[in-house]
Amino acid sequence: MIEQTPSTEIRPESHRLEGVDLLRGLVMVLMALDHTRDYFQDGSIDPTNLTQTTPALFITRWITHLCAPTFALLAGVGVRLASDRGRDHWAMFRYLVTRGLWLILLEQTVVKLGLFFRPNPSLLLGLVFWSLGGSFVILGVLLALRAPAWFDGLLGLAIVVGHNALDALSPGVGGVLRPAVSFLFRPGVVGLPGGVTLLVGYPVLPWFGVVALGYWLGGTYRMGARSRRLLMTTLGLASIALFVVLRVSRSYGDPSTWQSGGDAITSTLSFLNCTKYPPSLQFLLMTLGPTLLLLAAFDGGIGRVGEPLLTFGRVPLFFYLSQWYVAHGLALAAAWIQGQPTAWLFVESLPVKPPLGCVYGLPAVYAWWGLVVLLLYGPCLWFAAFKRRHRDWTWLGYL
Q1: Nearest-angstrom CA–CA distance, 279 and 253
Q2: Cα–Cα distance between 387 and 399 in angstroms, integer?
Q3: pLDDT level of residue 70 (50, 70, 90 thresholds)
């Protein structure tokens, strides 16, 4: 399954917080690793299937699990920072609704073309842009209703903690309302009238819970830096500790429990192998805990060494849209240069299944990933400078 983690920044360039951009840039680079792997390895091998994977492949995939939760959390933080700088409730409502619908439109057009390299009007995607775009719309409604930040955060916490109670529902629940159930609660493939297929990988409700928590977390930037870092560190460590307790007890928070294997490595991988689709409570504790620790560590910057990450973090939507075309295009060029078939790269669905001559080992995948990031750095640097020079161009806020 594809890991996707798009931009959701909402704040003026002059008010940027360096730690937020650093973390966003870091997870963006990690995300590119997962998407590069989609086109350079055999897609029939599931990195999280312990009967197929290797420890190195599992960890490669597991590290990228940080991406989607981090971007959802930072999306909420960005909304709160914009709101706290004086935008009235109706202005925020209009911005969030239009921003959310724009993300959903991009997923059906620019993202889908980058994924498949062919138009596919009979397929609708309900991936990360749907989940974050839908979350923006919901949060915009709450802001228009003047819901206090503590209420939004409490609602997000209730959703994150409680949505696993729906695990016991039948997979076919919903009947004629099944598309709505998939959109809101559970991933699935749904047939729509006119021969259209809807692929929902990121149902909106669990991810909205993370965005709402981020909206509450954004209020901590009113605190002093030392107090804020202490709070984030405490919350991060508490999240990791609660994950360990729930995972060991096999009690609640994930539909699949871990199993003790024949060796320590297999047992450890099983322990870490939480459910992402939809994101379980244990998955979110496992990923948001490190995210909060990194956010505290990056608060205030990390010096010149962090400048490339800052560049990527300041133009995340540009990076996100571009990296599909760069990774996919490199795979096409590599196959063509080697005289291998290329039809498999013009696909209707993922994961792709390349011919044997186009399958690379993990070390080569890391090399291709490095090339993807290197090729993106120059354009991202240019676009970041372009946005700084044209801060008065309102429409650039949507890019």
Answers
A1: 10
A2: 9
A3: very high
Contact 215, 139 (CB under 8 A): yes
Distance, CA of 303 to CA of 300 (rounded, Å): 9
Indicate the residue type of 257. Answer: T
Q: At what angle do helices 362-389 and 55-63 cross, to 10 degrees?
A: 10
Query: What are the pLDDT digits (tens) for 196-246?
Result: 888 889 999 999 999 999 999 999 999 999 999 999 999 999 999 999 999
Cα dist from 320 to 1, 264, 330, 348, 372, whole Å: 17, 37, 16, 20, 12
pLDDT in tens, 351-363: 788 888 889 999 9
Three-state helix/strand/coil letters over 186-236: CCEEEEEHHHEEEEECCCHHHHHHHHHHHHHHHHHHHCCHHHHHHHHHHHH
φ, ψ at 302 (rounded to 5°): -130, 20
Give the count of beta carbons closer than 10 Å to the beta carbon of residue 176: 6
Round to whole Å and give the CA distance between 397 and 13: 10
The two three-digit tokens of residue 228, written as one number = 């804020």
Helical (H) or strand (E) element with 105: helix 89-106
Q: State how far the Cα of 153 lies from the Cα of 216, in Å rounded to an integer.
A: 5
Angle at 310 between CA 307 and CA 311, to 5 degrees: 90
What per-residue confidence (pLDDT) applies to 262? 75
- Is residue 207 within 8 A of residue 136, CB to CB? The reply is no
The CB-based long-range contact list for 171-176 (8 Å cut-off, 24+ gap) reads none
Supply φ then ψ for residue 198, to 5 degrees: -105, 120
Exposure letters 78-106 (e unless 16+ CB within 10 A, then b): bbbbbbeeebeeeebbebbbebbebbbeb
**Residue type (1 letter), 222:** R
Residue 75 and residue 216 in contact, taking contact as beta carbons nearer than 8 Å: no
Closest Cα to residue 70, out of 110, 32, 20, 142? 20
Task: Tell me how far the alpha carbon of residue 113 is from its chain's centroid.
Answer: 19
196-200/123-126 β-pairing: parallel
> How far is C-alpha 136 from the geometric centre of its chain's CA atoms?
14
Q: What letter does residue 290 receive in the DSSP assignment?
A: H
User: At residue 54, what is the residue type?
Assistant: T
Nearest by Cα to 5 from 73, 101, 62: 73
Mapping DSSP to helix (H, G, I), strand (E, B) and coil, where does residue 126 land? strand
